[in-house]
């Protein structure tokens, strides 16, 4: 039954991406199918719970089948175009294969295979998962509800409405774990395991649209090899899952700025909306995207598309906020809602963030290569504004995150502990963005194109 549930979610996600546009590459459609499909699963679960439909295997099957029929009905209108694009995707030219691309693809598959095996072998054991996400998901599957969970009763857990409580955490990860438990899974680890595998495929697919396939394989390999991110990808936490949606949401918006295809703009909005469905602080990426998009909109005057984008990215925030208000899922606030100045606090945050940026133990060569890539591309940045949109969104998101850290009232833990642990994990969101920036710079693109041209079998013939 677990396989049936996963397949239904994946097919729904695949159809959704195809319905946005059949012209997405097959790598992108398959890569996005599971992550987006699971999002729809959790959204259905929340809406069912809101109208007092018990979350059971049978009710979920009915809900997913109904959604599948809706997706198929929409897809039918574009069936001819969809099949045409699929036929193109299966046309493979072996002349375009080169040894460097093949080597990196083999290494990606091998390393991710080992990582997936590790993920599935070890049960959830980290403290945050057992105290929150894993436990909440398991109890939802047993009690058939989120809003009425026994552990959300203040008489049972007196600190449940205290600062930093899991009661207000965005629901995607907990509900996705509940979903697989409802379908008979012995462990919820299939969710983080598949999420990361499908993410790598998506990242490679979207990178290949801007970079060539050899360059896309190289930067995907380096994203995969990021030490701390790779380690956490096999745990049951929310951070890597949120990083998947946040980074892809910004990347697809950067692609839209290059190609101006509406499908990328719409997909970017959906991915950023799911990003805050995983973790609330993902709002910093929405803020960065909207700032850059707003300036571009004023120059190019696409008011309708901008308004539609804003509505989509905030849709999940609105849904979750209403759900919490209606069903009393609240916790003591931790945000300081007025401006203030604390030089010691800002200097401490800055010190710890600088340490994270310099950490090769956590992030490998990512930040070092990013700086080198930035310097190497400086002429193109100044003269042609090369990659200016992506660079602006990355820097704005970093600035907004530092502001969020500054505006938090650390009632539940020491600020230094949060900076050492939570901030370290939040930086995962930037790893794919930085490697995509590196690979899509004019200077590096030229290098990748020369390399692929030199190595191609077609030229050798």
Question: Brief overview, please?
Answer:
This protein has 25 helices and no strands.
Walk me through the structure.
With 461 residues, the protein is mainly alpha-helical. The protein is built from 25 helices and no strands. It is globular and about 70 Å long. The mean pLDDT is 90.
Strand content: under 5%
Flag low-confidence runs: none
Summarize the biggest pleated sheet. none
Order of helices and strands: HHHHHHHHHHHHHHHHHHHHHHHHH
Termini gap = 51 Å
Overall pLDDT level: 90
Silhouette? globular
Rg, Cα atoms, Å: 22 Å
Query: How many E-type strands?
Result: 0
**How does the helix and strand content classify structurally?**
mainly alpha
The total of helices stands at 25
What percentage of residues falls in helices of 4 or more residues? over 70%
Write the SSE topology.
Blueprint: H1 2-20, H2 26-50, H3 57-76, H4 79-89, H5 99-121, H6 127-143, H7 172-182, H8 190-210, H9 213-224, H10 227-232, H11 239-259, H12 262-278, H13 283-300, H14 303-313, H15 315-327, H16 343-357, H17 360-363, H18 366-376, H19 378-384, H20 388-407, H21 415-420, H22 422-426, H23 430-440, H24 442-455, H25 457-460
Helix pairs in contact: 1-2, 1-3, 2-7, 2-8, 5-8, 5-9, 6-7, 8-9, 8-11, 9-23, 11-12, 11-20, 11-23, 12-14, 12-15, 13-14, 13-20, 18-23
């Amino acid at each position: 039954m677990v396989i049936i549930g996963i397949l239904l979610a994946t097919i729904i996600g695949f159809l959704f991406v195809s319905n946005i546009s059949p012209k997405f590459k097959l790598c992108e459609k398959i890569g996005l199918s599971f992550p987006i499909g699971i999002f729809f699963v959790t959204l259905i679960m929340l809406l069912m719970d809101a109208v007092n439909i018990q979350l059971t295997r049978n009710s979920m099957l009915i809900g997913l089948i109904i959604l599948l029929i809706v997706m198929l009905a929409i897809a039918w209108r574009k069936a001819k175009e969809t099949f045409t694009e699929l036929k193109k995707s299966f046309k493979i030219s072996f002349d375009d294969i080169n040894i460097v691309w093949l080597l990196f693809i083999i290494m990606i598959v091998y390393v991710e295979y080992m990582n997936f095996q590790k993920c599935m072998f070890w049960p959830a054991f980290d403290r945050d998962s057992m105290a929150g996400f894993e436990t909440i998901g398991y109890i939802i599957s047993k009690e058939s509800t989120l809003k009425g969970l026994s552990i959300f009763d203040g008489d049972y857990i007196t600190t449940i409405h205290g600062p930093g409580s899991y009661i207000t955490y965005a629901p995607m990860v907990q509900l996705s774990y509940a979903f697989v438990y409802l379908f008979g899974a012995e462990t919820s680890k299939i969710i983080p395991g598949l999420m990361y595998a499908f993410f790598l495929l998506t990242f490679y697919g979207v990178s290949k649209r801007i970079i060539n396939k050899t360059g896309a394989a190289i930067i995907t390999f380096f994203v995969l090899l990021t030490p701390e991110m790779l380690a956490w990808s096999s745990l049951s936490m929310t951070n890597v899952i949120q990083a998947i949606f946040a980074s892809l949401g910004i990347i697809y918006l950067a692609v839209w700025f290059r190609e101006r295809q509406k499908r990328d703009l719409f997909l970017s909005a959906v991915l950023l909306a799911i990003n805050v469905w995983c973790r609330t602080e993902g709002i910093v990426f929405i803020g960065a995207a909207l700032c850059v998009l707003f300036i571009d909109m004023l120059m190019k005057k696409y008011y309708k598309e901008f308004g539609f984008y804003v509505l989509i990215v905030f849709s999940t925030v609105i849904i979750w906020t209403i759900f919490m208000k209606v069903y009393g899922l609240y916790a003591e606030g931790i945000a300081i809602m007025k401006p203030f100045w604390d030089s010691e606090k800002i200097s401490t945050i800055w010190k710890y963030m600088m340490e994270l940026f310099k950490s090769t133990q956590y992030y490998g060569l990512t930040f070092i290569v990013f700086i080198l890539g930035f310097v190497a591309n400086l002429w193109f940045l100044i003269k042609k504004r090369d990659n200016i949109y992506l660079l602006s969104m990355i820097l704005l998101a970093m600035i907004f995150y530092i502001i969020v850290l500054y505006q938090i009232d650390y009632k539940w833990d020491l600020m230094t502990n949060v900076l050492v642990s939570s901030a370290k994990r939040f930086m995962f969101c930037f790893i794919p963005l930085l490697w995509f920036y590196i690979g899509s710079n004019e200077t590096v693109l030229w290098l990748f194109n020369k390399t692929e041209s030199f190595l191609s079998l077609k030229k050798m013939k």
